[in-house]
Amino acid sequence: MNHVLDQLYKLKLLLAGLVTALIGVVLLFVSKAIATTPALSWLANLPIGELGAGLLSAGVIAVIFEFYARQEADERATERFRRAIQQEASAIRDAVLDSFAFKPEQLKDIASADTLDRIATNAIGLRLGDQTLAADAYADLREQVIRSPERWRDVDVSVSLSPWNAGPAVGKGSMFVATVRWEYTVQPASTTMRFACVSDLGEYRELLRDPTVASAWHFDHSAGLDAADPQVFTLLQLSVNGHDKKIRRSTRTGSQLATVNLGQEATDSEVTISYTYRVLVQRHGHLLYLDLPRPAKGVHVQLDYAHTGIRRVNVLDYFASPDASRIEQSPATAPAKTIDVRFDGQTFPRAGVAFVWVLEDELRSARLENGPRPR
Predict the structure, then answer these.
(1) Highest CATH level, class, for 152-366
(2) Secondary element (H or E) of residue 55
(3) What digits encode the pLDDT tens for the residues 62-98?
(4) What 3-state DSSP class applies to 190?
(5) How far apart are CA 255 and CA 233, in angstroms?
(6) Are 297 and 373 in contact (CB under 8 A)?
(7) What is the pLDDT of residues 313-359, one digit of tens each?
(8) How far apart are CA 188 and CA 60, in angstroms?
(9) Considering Cα of 12, then 17, then 21, then 24, what sign does the dihedral take?
(10) If we measure between CA atoms, which residue out of 298, 285, 294, 296 comes closest to residue 354?
(11) DSSP letters along 99-143, please?
């Protein structure tokens, strides 16, 4: 054994044996001197010789044991331990795996993040039978969910569409005003929330990847309006647990930014955040897409499009899940025109709902251009 502590133990045992043997030799000499010296005859009754012989024997035996017997004893103990491990290897393995399977917090305490990633990838690979697919799937999951700064739940979104009266009613430049209200429960990762509206497509894509941006809108210059115009986008209200927060707005040509400080106490526990903004949507664009920038559990989206001149609306949901969303539309004969989309499962970031509409005036124009159908 080359371990420092083992070497130290061996040295101490050797020294103790040598000292014991030396004391035994000294006592033997003393016993001899007593037997040959009349003046010390009064010590003859003491067992000095027997004690010396005993100490000498103990010291010599300790040295012999250390050099010969201990090595053999260690080898036998090692062999017994090795056989025990081999015999119980299956039981030990099953006990460890069961412990990690049913008490994952124990695995977290002893494994680093990289080790956990490798374990998860290998486990998925075994279940899928394809290690490459497992590595790609887990890498996407890690980037989208594990590294996401926040997790939302009970997301409720309501959208109301109405005609924009400050521009043309139909054709180029005609708009809908979308009033959008969000409410969800979350433990905020930051004390600051930002809302942006930009006209540059590259900047918009960068904002979508920015974890500090709660909502980003792209407004095309072709509409004849600047994205910095408050008519284009305005954050109307934001509250935390029902308490309104101050909104700070900054603009530059082609973009605007609304910033809200939630307060330090908002990041200490889960809170309910709600906010409402107004945004212009191009009427002839036929599309309104609501993006979920964070992982979310439970989503409800409602669209109200009464009095907008929309004939019908198609719904596309982008929820990557084996479970289907529930879509309910108001009856065609009802004065209210609403669509409800519900999804109770877990969504990934960048999931969302798209509303695609068909306009009444476009259908009429198409019928006039095509003329009456022959009978």
Answers:
(1) mainly beta
(2) helix 48-64
(3) 666 666 666 666 777 777 777 777 776 677 666 666 6
(4) coil
(5) 10
(6) no
(7) 999 998 888 888 999 998 877 888 999 999 999 888 888 999 999 99
(8) 74
(9) positive
(10) 285
(11) HHHH-HHHHHHHS-HHHHHHHHHHHHHHHHT-HHHHHHHHHHHII
